[in-house]
Design brief:
With 329 residues, the protein is α/β, with parallel strands linked by helices. The protein folds into two domains: 276 residues, no CATH class; 42 residues, no CATH class. A seven-stranded parallel beta sheet has the order 5-2-1-9-10-13-14. A three-stranded antiparallel beta sheet has the order 7-6-8. Strands 3-4 form a two-stranded antiparallel sheet. Helix 1 packs parallel to helix 2, helix 1 crosses helix 12 and helix 4 packs antiparallel against helix 5. The radius of gyration is 19 Å and the shape is globular. It starts with a strand and ends in a 5-residue tail after the last helix. It binds ligand FO1.
């Protein structure tokens, strides 16, 4: 079975780990299952001259077995000797922690990018080491960065734009985002293989990633949304909102920023033009309108407390998708 998934950071990576766990138990007709992941790259940031790709790295480390499990980002068994030395030189920012092992990833990536290698090939080269068990594609090889407009009485016009990571990590998204801008997205082209992976999949999955700054950004890459509308594959998503709150992260701050209610139903509405199935938590059962051309809805426990629980959610998503494939298609 060919599965394509869009993914952001921690929630998406944990869902994908569950998906691979589940697929191990699903008989194949001899051809192995193929999973392609289209990763968000608008969280990417350049620090100390190094290109950091948080969402790609979280997927790569989580599926490759090197993730710091408690954080969901960065490497396990880390040391911070380089960061201490950078601080001694007064080199900030001090609010974005880079561990020694993680820095090696950014050094390799930055060197290959500097030699002119596109991000998709760089990502494949890094995955040669980590063997995540999926084909990990950046959403685009072109630079896209999420910037957030916040109030600042000292700035011209009372507002200024800051990098997503500063809003997310230094400010904990606690300062209202007046605008969330994916800078460069209008000119971004889908990375090689992205549109084909969406069009030729047997199933397309939307893990419970941030619907604004992760999934939403990927959908904003010209051509991606059309490919999702046009694919013959059923498109099934998993709600990142449970009982009116994000399971983790701060998707509520992002949804508020775009004037959308923090609910499973409202997030489904963001994907309404291509979504065929929507998994919600049992606590949200009955809260999402169905019928007509609305997606089929199924309520299952959505807390990914461990790999097996994430696997059960992935299994439910695939089961919902299987029920949507019209037998005559
Ligand atoms: N998140 C934090 O809350 N604090 C950090 O210091 C931090 C460092 C960091 C370093 C590398 C990396 O790949 C991710 C890192 N993150 C950190 C997480 C990151 O901000 C988020 O995971 C994504 O950008 C949101 O999906």
């Amino acid at each position: 079975m060919r599965i394509t998934a869009l993914a952001g950071g921690i929630g998406g990576a944990r869902f994908l780990r569950g998906l691979l766990h589940h697929l191990d138990s699903v008989p194949t007709d001899g051809t192995p299952h193929e999973v392609t992941v289209v990763g968000n790259t608008a969280d990417d940031v350049t620090l100390h001259g190094l290109r950091v790709c948080p969402d790609l790295d979280t997927v790569m480390y989580t599926l490759g077995g090197g993730i710091h499990e408690g954080q969901g980002w960065g490497r396990e068994d880390e040391r911070f000797t380089v960061a201490e030395e950078l601080a001694a030189y007064g080199q900030g920012p001090d609010w974005f922690t880079l561990g020694d092992r993680d820095i090696a990833t950014h050094v390799v990536r930055t060197r290959l990018l500097g030699q002119g290698m596109p991000l998709s090939e760089v990502t494949a080269a890094l995955c040669d080491r980590w063997k995540p068990g999926v084909r990990l594609l950046p959403m685009s090889d072109d630079r896209v960065e999420t910037h957030v407009v916040v109030d600042d009485e000292d700035a011209e016009g009372g507002r200024r734009a800051i990098h997503f990571q500063e809003w997310w990590v230094r400010l904990h998204a606690a300062v209202p985002a007046r605008q969330i801008l994916a800078v460069g997205i209008e000119q971004a082209r889908p990375a090689p293989g992205v549109l084909e992976a969406l069009r030729e999949a047997d199933v397309v999955l939307l893990p419970p990633s941030n619907p604004v700054v992760s999934i939403g950004t990927i959908l904003g890459v010209p051509g991606v949304r059309d490919a999702l509308r046009g694919t013959r594959a059923p498109v099934v998503g998993v709600s990142p909102i449970v009982g009116g709150a994000p399971v983790r992260g701060m998707a509520d701050a992002c949804l508020t920023a775009i004037g959308v209610e923090t609910s499973a139903a409202a997030v489904a509405g963001l994907y309404a033009d291509f979504l065929d199935g929507w998994l919600v938590d049992t606590s949200d059962d009955g809260t999402v309108p169905t019928g007509g051309d609305r997606p089929a809805v199924r309520a299952v426990p959505l807390l990914m407390t461990d790999v097996a629980a994430a696997g059960a959610i992935a299994g439910a998503a695939l089961d919902l998708a299987a029920g949507l494939t019209s037998p005559v298609a």
